Amino acid sequence: MSTQSVTVATPAPFEAFVACPTHHCVTGSLKHIYDFHGYPISEELLLGLGRGLGFVYFHFKGADPFYGGRANHASPREEGLEKTAGRRTGVAVTVGSTSSSRVAQDGLRDLLRVGEPVLLYVDMGFLPYFDLPAGYHFGGHVVVAVGYDPDTEQVLIADRDLELHPVDWDVLEKARGSAYKPFPPHHTWYTFDFSRAREPRPEDVHAAIREVCDGMLTPPIANLGVRGIRKAIQETLRWPESLGPDELRRTCFNTAMFIDARGGTGGGIFRYMYARFLTEAAILTGEPRFGDLAPELTAIGDLWEDVAATFADAAELDHPADLLAAATTPMLEIADREQLFWQRLRALTIV
After folding, report:
1. pTM, whole model, 2 decimals?
2. Bridge partners (DSSP) listed for residue 66
3. pLDDT tens digits, 159-176
4. Which of 22, 148, 214, 248 could form a disulfide with 112 if both were Cys (CB 3.0 to 4.6 A apart)?
């Protein structure tokens, strides 16, 4: 008895949608949205205009310690990179979030049926196209839904790679509704109105740079900015006091990944991307000294890559604590150089 294999057609992307490889999930998803609507823009410019660079260290109860190079995450106190970049490019950005999976699904279906790409927050641990360790979860990941087949109940997802990924509706729902801490996505989605889109103005660029500098130099709490880098050094050396070997290896793996390009930072914990933004900023503002400072930030990014490599090595050891001092030693120089760098950069925004 012979059998025939059945090929299930995957959804087609919306007309005029073109995928491109990207560095960071948020800026990459925004770039896909902007390009789709006829406003091509670089990820680097979106990161810079969105006040998206910073540093954060935290260790919440019940979660692993975390290093992050992003700033301006949407919260009651922050409008979020998506809205900030939109405000500085004339794009009206609307965010939705709900605890109801039904409301989330109905809203997404309505948008996809009219051919509107939708930016979604998801837990990447549920997405089938990632090769991640068992039990890994990160709900701060962002993708764009760019196609939908109601017959097969598949959604076509654009991520950071060039390939478009068909994902079953129920799987996407799990990713959108994940409750894993510290970044549950809460079925969050964004829509965009480009009717008043415009080029960023020099004053937009100056303000965006000044805000990043202020965040690095005068953060509201010690876990952020340059102070946060110095605190991370101290706290990292204490990890063995509260983390067992398995937890410590996992934390070292995660820390390495969220510094280097694997975690969507563009490498150097976003410093490489921001350096390239400064080169664009020099052109947009007519201030060449922005571009002159870019190589120093790239060099600082190189030091961050050294930190990531040592954390990655520690994650492979039976006794990962043996490498924590070596991993954090370059951060002493990083903190000093970042302090000076952000001071020099901020001085250029006083016009």
Report:
1. 0.94
2. 58
3. 999 999 999 999 999 999
4. 148
